[in-house]
Amino acid sequence: MDLLGSILLVFIGLGGGLAVGSGFVAFLTVLDIVPRLTVFSRGRRYVRSYEWAFVAGALAATWVDLRDWSAAFSPLGTVPVGFLAGCFVGLLAAALTEVINVLPILAKRLQMQKFVLYLLMAMVFGKILGSLFQWIWFIA
Amino acid sequence: MGTDLVYLQLKKRVKARVGEILLLRDLAQLLTGEDHEDLGYLPILRLGKDQGSHMVVDVMDVLRKIRQQYPDVEVRSVGPLQTIIEVEAVYKVPSGVLVALVWLLLFVGSALAIMNFHTDVSMKAVHERIYYLITGEHNSKPLLLQIPYSIGIGLGMVLFFNHLFKRKFNDEPSPLELEVFLYQENIDQFVIDHEKSKDRGDRNGPSG
């Protein structure tokens, strides 16, 4: 491969990565997940380090995935990973507008303001069981 | 003359029933001198049947009524310029069956939505990939990863809405409470603007 082609490849790769990375961060920012999590850790001081957690996670996963590395942990090692990944997707799903905008309006229209919590739990259990169903039975 | 000065602050929202006569003290907080403590019992309006579910009382209407009855009182209005009267319909409490129905609807819809999401982002392939990256083995059904993942989804949602740990961590409102509040505020603002323009239209337009 000639030098020019290499330079071009590096340039394209860098550009693509920039676009994807900034889009990824913008997505996370729009959904307000970090502010929600700072509520639990009681500290806005650590927001900076949370940003680095995003960057480090994305970078590590990209590297490991593209290099096709694999570790040799026991299958039980996937349990905490799956759990944390699920929590994150749960945060995403809750932050998406479907839940946050639908529930108040629906509750008001049907005059069920008192039951908003139950309705929320319906969505939570729906997500859990829908997901379990998909992995255990739905996929042949 | 100093005691003739009355401060009036309209309430933002008032709930009332059809046919009820609303007194000034129902609509507003008053700060009066001893001479005018009866001012609070001044009737302002009667809720007719055809009012619809919301009605807006403007501060000017209230002032006009006061001036008719008590021409020598000087009123200073502070605070909101309108009161929204929410007409309480005599609605029945939603039955358990209805709540259960909506519950099921949300349950099934939510389940469907998460499955659509997983298919959308090829979550199955990602899970298999993660499983391979960690264990070095291929597994087309990495349930050890996927079952905790599914439970985690529920936990993440609960975390987002700040339920379980509400008292433990702090008393910030949850996003859902905020959203309910904003929705109500929007409705109020709409009602104020809408009712105003409706009134103006009625007055100017031909009657009938």
From TrEMBL, chain A:
<feature type="transmembrane region" description="Helical">
    <location>
        <begin position="115"/>
        <end position="137"/>
    </location>
</feature>
<feature type="transmembrane region" description="Helical">
    <location>
        <begin position="83"/>
        <end position="103"/>
    </location>
</feature>
<dbReference type="Pfam" id="PF13782">
    <property type="entry name" value="SpoVAB"/>
</dbReference>
<keyword id="KW-0812">Transmembrane</keyword>
<keyword id="KW-0472">Membrane</keyword>
<keyword id="KW-1133">Transmembrane helix</keyword>
<protein>
    <submittedName>
        <fullName>Stage V sporulation protein AB</fullName>
    </submittedName>
</protein>
<feature type="transmembrane region" description="Helical">
    <location>
        <begin position="6"/>
        <end position="34"/>
    </location>
</feature>
<dbReference type="InterPro" id="IPR020144">
    <property type="entry name" value="SpoVAB"/>
</dbReference>
<feature type="transmembrane region" description="Helical">
    <location>
        <begin position="46"/>
        <end position="63"/>
    </location>
</feature>
UniProtKB/TrEMBL annotation, chain B:
<feature type="transmembrane region" description="Helical">
    <location>
        <begin position="147"/>
        <end position="165"/>
    </location>
</feature>
<feature type="domain" description="Stage V sporulation protein AA">
    <location>
        <begin position="5"/>
        <end position="88"/>
    </location>
</feature>
<dbReference type="InterPro" id="IPR038548">
    <property type="entry name" value="SporV_AA_N_sf"/>
</dbReference>
<keyword id="KW-1133">Transmembrane helix</keyword>
<keyword id="KW-0472">Membrane</keyword>
<keyword id="KW-0812">Transmembrane</keyword>
<dbReference type="InterPro" id="IPR021997">
    <property type="entry name" value="SporV_AA"/>
</dbReference>
<dbReference type="Pfam" id="PF12164">
    <property type="entry name" value="SporV_AA"/>
</dbReference>
<feature type="transmembrane region" description="Helical">
    <location>
        <begin position="97"/>
        <end position="117"/>
    </location>
</feature>
<protein>
    <submittedName>
        <fullName>Stage V sporulation protein AA</fullName>
    </submittedName>
</protein>
